[in-house]
Amino acid sequence: MQREERSLGELFSELSRETSTLVRKEVELAKTEITDKATKAGKNIGFLAVGGAVAYAGFLTLIAAVVMLIGLAIPWWLSALIVGVIVAGVGYALVQKGLSTLKAMDFKPQETIETLKEDKAWAKQQMH
Q: Quick one: CA dihedral 71, 76, 80, 86, positive or negative?
């Protein structure tokens, strides 16, 4: 059996080529996987949107039923006004709650910032 002798440079060159090929294949696999998952997510987002629209239509129907029920006791216009004011008030309260919560949130990537500070300190220490 004849032994193939290759130089260290040739071995490193082959390792570099194979590593490059491996990285390209991994990136290709990741792209395929992400595309597949994005397609599935897109379909499910469509279901969420349609489901939300149907639920909203149901909610509006329930509000109309409440207006009609109250309209049996008082004039229709007053019934619609009362229900409309209540629904608008609840909507306003929900919007204000959401806005105040968003304003209070800290969107900075705090862990990343801390890690970068630690990396900077480590790099400075290595320089000395």
A: negative
